[in-house]
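Write out the 3D structure for:
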Amino acid sequence: MDRITTLQSFVDKSPDQAFPRYGLAMEYKNQGRLTEALVVFAELVDRCPDYVATYLMYGNTLAETGEAGKAVKTYRRGIQVARDAKDSHTVGEIETALAEITSAT
C-alpha cells in the first residue's frame, strides 16, 4: 500500500481528526500533486479550523500554484488562529511568509 492510500484510510476512519488529513495534504504536496493537496487543505480548514499548522502549508501551496491573493487571505487567517492559540512561533512563521508574498506582488 502506498503512502497516499494509507493516509487516506486514516482520514476515512477519523474524518474529523486534523493530523491524518494534514498528513495526506502534505504527502500530496511532497509528491508535487498540488491540486489534490489544495483540496485536502481546504477540507482541513473546513473541518478543523483551529489546526494551526494548516495555514502556513496551505498558504505556501496556494502561492506555489500562483494563487497569491488566496495565499494572503490564508496567511492572515492563520495568523489570527495562531494568535488565538497563543502560538507565537507559528505567528512569526506565517508573518514571514505573508511579508515575502506581499513584497513580491
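The mean pLDDT is 96.
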